[in-house]
Amino acid sequence: MRAMTPPRPRHLLRLAALVAAMAALALLVLDGARQAGLARLDADLQNRLTLTRHAVTAQIERYRYLPALIGQDARILSLLDRPGDDRSAANAYLKATRALSGVDQIYVLDPQGRALAASNAGEPGSFVGQDYAFRPYFRQALTRGAARYYAVGVTTGIPGYFLASRIGSAEAPLGVAVAKVDMGGLQATWASADQSVALADAAGVVFLAGQPDWLFRPLDPLDDATARQLDGEQRYAGQAVPTAAPLRAALTGLRLAEVPLQPDGWPILAAEPLAPVERQAQLLALLAGLSGLLVSALAVGWRQRRQLIRVRLNQNAELERRVAERTEALAHEIDQRRRAQDELREAHESLVHAAKLAVLGRMSTTIVHEVSQPLSALDSTLAAAELHLGAGREARAVASLAAARALLMRMQKMVRNLKSFGARQRADPPEAVDMARVLTAGAEVLAPRLRDLGQRLALTLPPGLPAVSGQAVRLEQVVINLILNAAEAAAGAGARAPVRVALEPAPGGLRLTILDRGAGIDPALQDRIQEPFFTTRVTGEGLGLGLSITRGILDQIGATLAFHPRPGGGTVTVVDLPLYHDAAHPAAAPRLDDRLAG
């Protein structure tokens, strides 16, 4: 009997190939995830370095102007010119400058490097009398005009950033002004946030760090010449910098990045641990391997699922067909809605056009109403001029003609303002208006009409009232309409008491009050008296536009209009007017002639 060949070796071969493929996939994912993690880490480090560089630069630049400013002060120049004189004025100036600027210390050196004055004069550890000629910033400031240097203070033992500026010219230097900036606050901020950032000098020695064990360590081993230079400058006095372990070699397991700090070129360093990146890469590689195995397992049942896939494809085709039908229906609906919107827009434009025609009609009627009173005054003035000419009183005739021309100009302005009132967008901007002058002008226009009505006008205009916001001609229209209504109401009731007009200060503005002894306003008509074309007069005596126009003018400038019954009969008309916001001086209030008021 022939033995059958078992299929086992072929299955083992397929299994081995599958395992090898999954291992290769895991290695590829591991490498890709590691590179992506390092790229993100480098980006984070660069962002941190940028922020750190800006913070360091801002801390230094905040005081960069101080040495040059100090070198221009007369007290400092006098001290350098006569070192043997009293130094109290210079020391007091440096103390005050230190207090105002917030810098750590300020001091002034003579051309030999000895401190003549300091902001800590008279205090323990004062710089006065100390010799700083060995400091590089002193020598560089004398030769170059300015210098920057970081070191541990030889007098105080406190590290600081030194900004120096030469006083005087390069050929005849008078001395050097120095400002010491305390960088400890910046370092404390880094330490409180546990940030692995540091700043090193040109020799590669870390002098600012968020990690305390990084301080005063060289990034790389120092050569003998650099070590001797640091020792000669006493840059880090009291610190064993040459024997400290190099920092760069000790930062194992960390990703290190650095950028230069301009203009010194000092390196700013930032570091982040690599362990989180490695752990994430390994986790992603493991997930990739497991995912590959899962995909392989799913592939085994692929043939059994082909029929199900075919059914789903058919279902998808049916769904796409329905979606296409619905899309077509939606497109039709959108087209119908667009047509409806076009029709609505056309209807709206028609309404706007109709409203414009209505406004034009209202304006023409308004002009007739508002010009009628000045025309009456113009007729009287021209008649007076004719009488004066006939009587040979040429001077009075000329005055009457001038008054007539003024009335014509006022009517022209009135017409222009009525047009702008009809088209609100063209109204003139508010201006400072002297209401006393407006009331005086309105009374002049109304004087002939008041005499015809047998009425008198009593004005109360306190001096020194501030200006209100509005347009003078429009407010004159308001005054004329309201006073004329009050006078006609009083005349109709047979009242002999004068129409009283008062102007007085009110919260946020001025209050105009008009009191008459007319028949008053029927409470049933209170809400309608300000409607256009509403009037209680006999047909032909008025168009019912006066109060509507008045209300429109007052609304535009933010004023209010109200009517109240007066005890004993009559009406109290109250207008509250806002002050002109730029009115810095009170407006002059001219007095009204007794003959005009009567």
TrEMBL record:
InterPro entries the UniProt entry points to: HATPase_C_sf, HATPase_dom, His_kinase_dom, Sensor-like_sf, Sig_transdc_His_kin-like_C, Sig_transdc_His_kinase_DctB
Pfam family, one: HATPase_c
Main enzyme class: transferase
Organism: Paracoccus liaowanqingii
Membrane topology: Multi-pass membrane protein
Protein's name according to its UniProt entry: histidine kinase
GO cellular component: plasma membrane
Main subcellular location of this protein, as a coarse class: membrane
Assigned keywords, A-Z: ATP-binding, Cell membrane, Kinase, Membrane, Nucleotide-binding, Plasmid, Transferase, Transmembrane, Transmembrane helix, Two-component regulatory system
Domain Histidine kinase: 366-581
GO MF: ATP binding; protein histidine kinase activity
Enzyme Commission number, as recorded: 2.7.13.3
Biological processes per GO annotation: phosphorelay signal transduction system
Record's keyword annotation contains Nucleotide-binding: yes
Transmembrane intervals: none
Top-level taxon: Bacteria
Keyword Transferase on entry: yes
Compartmental location: Cell membrane
Record's catalysed reaction(s): ATP + protein L-histidine = ADP + protein N-phospho-L-histidine
PROSITE patterns, alphabetized: HIS_KIN
